[in-house]
Amino acid sequence: MLESVKRVILVLSGKGGVGKSTVSTQLALTLKEKGFKVGLLDVDLCGPSVPYILNLETENIHQGAEGWIPVYLDKDQKLGVMSIGFLLKNRNDAVVWRGPKKTAMIKQFLEDVCWQDLDFLVIDTPPGTSDEHITVMENLRQVPQCSAILVTTPQEVAIEDVRKEITFCRKTGIPILGIIENMSGFQCPTCNECTNIFSSGGGKALADFAKVPFLGSLPLDPRVGKLAGQGVAAVKELPDSNTSKVFNHLVSVLTESTQNGS
Fold first, then answer.
1. Half-sphere exposure of 109 (CA within 13 A, CB side)
2. Was 203 annotated as part of a binding site?
3. 244 annotated as a binding-site residue
4. 131, pLDDT greater than 90
5. Residue 205 burial (CB < 10 Å; 0-12/13-18/19+)?
6. Residue (of 152, 166, 151, 149) closest to 199 by Cα position
7. Is 18 annotated as a binding residue?
8. What is the pLDDT of residue 1?
9. Which positions does UniProt annotate for ATP binding (predicted)?
């Protein structure tokens, strides 16, 4: 079913809790706002948060003649979403599966979802470099334009884990589009002053060390946090925020690299 997808973007990190799902959803929403047709696949089987972030928890997926039909955020079907969260009865249900069952589920998501024609498929992944990631990589080998965005936070412990993710991407042959530093200081919603809660500059230093592009720093912004559960793009609701500037830049990078075939 990936034959109709023009480009796949993997959102990765070796560390949990760095905001991959927030980056994935806001990237998908920004691409949608720019007029692209987008799919968002949540393969974090044990912690599927995409349905909640996009306010789609009450929706269900359906089986069609050609495969599973994704849940659409809008009537124009510009953003389709697939997650195991749609198969659970409630948010508190735990997915207690061994590796082979996880592998089979992810393979089914990649092969049996009827995305139709997509400009971009954004894949939100769990932390680490284990079964889920290997399954995704094996099934994406035939996709001509597939690249990864790595998400980190400024602390050294997160950077060390993301460094392992860089090694994983290079071993599996997935091009790295760049690194985003999330939670890069607290931005006051009143005065816009940004205060470093953790250390600063770790993401940029890691990008320089790995010789990959640095895509920007996303601050902790309470206004952006309130958008979780609403399914609304920061670029639409908060066009002047630093978060919106980073995602606008990211979409520009994606568009340019797509046109260049890289």
1. 30
2. no
3. no
4. no
5. middle
6. 152
7. yes
8. 66
9. 14-21
